[in-house]
C-alpha cells in the first residue's frame, strides 16, 4: 500500500479529537513529502539532528514533534522550530528547554514522559516526580515552556491486558496531574499508542497517537 492509502486508512478510523503524529524517523524526505501531499502536517522524529535536517528541506507549515529521548546539549538545535517535545523526563531538561526557547522568543509545548512500562530500557518519570515538577516554584518561573500533558509507552509485549493496564494507569495519572496544574484547560494531551497498540490506547483515553510503520512501512536501521 502507498503512504497515502495507509494514511487515509488510519485517519478513517481515528476519532476526530485524536491527533495523528506521523512518525517518520529513519525515512527519507521523499516519504515525508508524500505524506505531506496527502494532507499530513504533523511529523514525529526521535533524533534532533535528523529532525532539524528534515525541517530545513520540507515545507514550513509542518509541525515537528520530538518523540525521542532528548539530550540536554542538543535542545538548542530544535528550539527555533519544534512544536511539541513529548519526552520531558526531568526538571533539568525543562529548564534547558525554557532557556533555549527564550532565545527565540518562543514558548515550547512539552509533555511529561511517564514510565508506565515494565522495562528498564524505557525512559520516563514517576507520578511523584511529575507532581513535584508541576508544583515546584521553578516550574512557575519557566515562562517559555507550557506543560500540556503526558506521554507514555507501553511494554513491548503480546500481553494485551498488560498493555491495557499500563494505558489506564497513564490516563489515571493524567487525571490527577490535571487537578494540580495551574492552568488545567491547557493540560489536555495524552500521547499514547503506536502502530501495534493505538486502537487500545484510544479506547483507554489517548488524545494523540504516534504512528510510524503502519504509515511508512517497516524501518531499516
Ligand atoms: C518509533 C516510535 C513510535 C512509532 O512506532 P511504530 O511502531 O512504527 O508506529 C512511536 N513512539 C515513539 C516514542 C517511537 O520512538
Task: Write structural notes for this entry.
It is a single chain. The mean pLDDT is 96. It is built from nine helices and eight strands. With 221 residues, it is an alpha/beta fold. It has a single domain (3-215), classed as Alanine racemase (TIM Barrel), CATH 3.20.20.10. Strands 7-6-5-4-3-2-1-8 form an eight-stranded parallel β-sheet. It has helices spanning 3-12, 29-37, 48-57, 91-103, 127-135, 137-141, 160-180, 198-203, 213-216; strands spanning 19-23, 42-45, 63-66, 84-88, 108-113, 145-151, 189-191, 208-211. Pyridoxal-5'-phosphate binds at residues 23, 25, 46, 67-68, 153, 194-196, 210-214.
Helix-strand blueprint:
Layout: H1 3-12, E1 19-23, H2 29-37, E2 42-45, H3 48-57, E3 63-66, E4 84-88, H4 91-103, E5 108-113, H5 127-135, H6 137-141, E6 145-151, H7 160-180, E7 189-191, H8 198-203, E8 208-211, H9 213-216
Parallel strand pairs: 1-2, 1-8, 2-3, 3-4, 4-5, 5-6, 6-7
Bound molecules: pyridoxal-5'-phosphate (PLP).
Pyridoxal-5'-phosphate binds at residues 23, 25, 46, 67-68, 153, 194-196, 210-214.
Amino acid at each position: 500500500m502507498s503512504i497515502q492509502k495507509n494514511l487515509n486508512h488510519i485517519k478513517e478510523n481515528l476519532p476526530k479529537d485524536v491527533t495523528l503524529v506521523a512518525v517518520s524517523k529513519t525515512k527519507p524526505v521523499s516519504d515525508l513529502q508524500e505524506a505531506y501531499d496527502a494532507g499530513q502536517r504533523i511529523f514525529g522524529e526521535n533524533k534532533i539532528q535528523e529532525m532539524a535536517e528534515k525541517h530545513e528541506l520540507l515545507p514550513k507549515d509542518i509541525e515537528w514533534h520530538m518523540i525521542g529521548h532528548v539530550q540536554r546539549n542538543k535542545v538548542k538545535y530544535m528550539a527555533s522550530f519544534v512544536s511539541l517535545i513529548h519526552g520531558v523526563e526531568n526538571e533539568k531538561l525543562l529548564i534547558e528547554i525554557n532557556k533555549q526557547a527564550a532565545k527565540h522568543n518562543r514558548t515550547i509545548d512539552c509533555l511529561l514522559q511517564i514510565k508506565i512500562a515494565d522495562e528498564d530500557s524505557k525512559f520516563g518519570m514517576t507520578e511523584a516526580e511529575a507532581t513535584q515538577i508541576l508544583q515546584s516554584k521553578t516550574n512557575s518561573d519557566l515562562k517559555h515552556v507550557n506543560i500540556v500533558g503526558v506521554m507514555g509507552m507501553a511494554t513491548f509485549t503480546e500481553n494485551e491486558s498488560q498493555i491495557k493496564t499500563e494505558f489506564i494507569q497513564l490516563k489515571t495519572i493524567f487525571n490527577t496531574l490535571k487537578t494540580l496544574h495551574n492552568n488545567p484547560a491547557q493540560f489536555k494531551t495524552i500521547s499514547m499508542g503506536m502502530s501495534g497498540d493505538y486502537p487500545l490506547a484510544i479506547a483507554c483515553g489517548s488524545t494523540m497517537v504516534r504512528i510510524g510503520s503502519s504509515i511508512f512501512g517497516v524501518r531499516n536501521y
